[in-house]
Amino acid sequence: MSEKRIQRRQSRVLALKTLFFYLERNEEPVLKDCFDYILLEIDDQKADDFSWEIVNTAVKNIGKIKLLIRAFAPEYKFEKIAPINRALLILGISEMKFMETPPVVVINEYIELAKQYGEDKSPSFLNGVLDSYLKSLGLERTKQ
């Protein structure tokens, strides 16, 4: 894996931990405080602009993203989706919809994060929802 891909993966992990922390506290704390706490107390790594951009974009658009998740995972009540899967979906859809990350990269990255941090069925669940969203955009998944 290239140095840039490793850095991007680490940025996504930091964004995931921050969003999970934020969501588990019912979206009440200040997002920047959550980000700083994860940086200093949990990860002990330097912040980068990409990790902050991912989590900030996701929270800024969280209402729209939740609607999309409900639309593309209709058989699951949003509140019943495992918290880590909710965080992964929010970040993945945020990157696909509001950032310029290629969708195939987003799907592959969040499936890998689901393997690392999620439950046994998390990768296939994320793949299904993110791929359905991608197809709704009229795009097909292609190789990197």
Please supply descriptive tags for the structure shown above:
144 residues; mainly alpha; N-utilizing Substance Protein B Homolog, Chain A; 7 helices; 72% helix
Q: Estimate percent helicity.
A: over 70%
CATH superfamily: NusB-like
Give the SSE string.
HHHHHHH
Q: Which overall shape is indicated by the principal axes computed on the Cα atoms?
A: globular
Which ranges are low-confidence, i.e. pLDDT below 50, for 5 or more consecutive residues? none
In whole angstroms, the N-to-C terminal distance is 13 Å
Portion in beta strands:
under 5%
Give the number of DSSP strands: 0
Q: Give the biggest sheet.
A: none
The CATH class turns out to be Mainly Alpha
The overall pLDDT average reads 90
Number of domain units: 1
Radius of gyration: 14 Å
| CATH topology (level 3) name | N-utilizing Substance Protein B Homolog, Chain A
Oligomer: single chain
CATH architecture classification: Orthogonal Bundle
Structural class by secondary-structure content: mainly alpha
* Separate helix tally: 7
